[in-house]
Amino acid sequence: MTEYKIALMPGDGIGPELTEATLKILDVVQENFGINFNMILAEAGDAVFKKRGVALPEDSLKIIRESHACLKGPVGETAADVIVRLRLLFDLYANVRPIKAFPNVPVAHPDIDMIFVRENTEDVYKGLEYSIGNDVTVCLRVITRQNCERIAKRAFETAKLRPKKKVTAIHKANVMRVTDGLFKQVCQETAKNYPDVKYNEMYVDAATMHLIRTPQDFDVLCTCNMFGDILSDEAAQLIGGLGMAPGANIGDNFALFEPIHGSAPDIAGKQIANPISMILSAKMMLDWLGERFNDSKCLKAAEAIEKATVQTLINGVTVPDLGGKVSTLQMAQAIVAALKI
Ligand code: ATP
Hints:
This protein is α/β, with parallel strands linked by helices. It contains eleven helices and twelve strands. The longest helix has 19 residues. The relative contact order is 0.17. Bound molecules: adenosine-5'-triphosphate.
């Protein structure tokens, strides 16, 4: 039996509830598909910071380093010390965020099926912010050819395998002529290597409008770090909210999977959070393990998780966020039941 070591980081706020729900699904996956997960708890976030004075302890990093992948819940106030750091430490340069309309969920358009491929390690999130005196502050926007090249390549490789085969590069090169100028240039160069993939560009302000007006027209959105962060939260509102949006942080040798949202302290501990964001993040983890280790069992399990989630939504079993009445855990149990059929 294949065994995968998974660093498990439940996080803060609704994180532990979503993690508990997701583990129910992975338990069935182990039984049904002959995959063995060795889940190892790696503490990180606000609670650990309170307890130990550090948000991402060295022992957690060691666990992550020794794992095949990491499954992470959202982290609260210390998010920058945890996820931004992990993305840099493990060079997880691609943030992949699928935004897809599911049945029986209030969506802006039933044909929404897009995926953000967002650069994850530079731009204004590099942390190069300074006060230069007299109440003047600056933040450096770092955009490098190497990172533009690898994110553009990933966007086109992703698009190549999708029915619409289209990449939209999003930037503001008319204003940020040097930094977004480089991003735009590299995207155009990369497009030449993919004659079967359609390519267009949009200024970020126009993209915010088109996302609301014609979201069904998008396929793969290739972005720098900050624009992708903002636009993907906006896009999640088109498919039933942040609770429907999973995510992956992918590098060449490691990957970390987590919902795109934060710790939602306003609804924490109430068992009303939508677990689909984390359940589908686990599904993405199985897809990645399947591809990386050439393991068809993982690919089949990933497909089964999505099917069972769809079936559960069709059956009308939903949390209050989606208009239903069941709890976070009950929704997970319904997905478990659908998986067992
Ligand atoms: P943080 O400070 O950790 O970023 P936040 O509350 O400011 O947390 P998010 O957690 O990203 O930001 O979410 C914004 C709002 O979206 C939450 O307050 C919550 O109402 C809603 N939300 C987020 N995730 C979910 C979910 N899984 N299920 C239901 N509602 C959610």
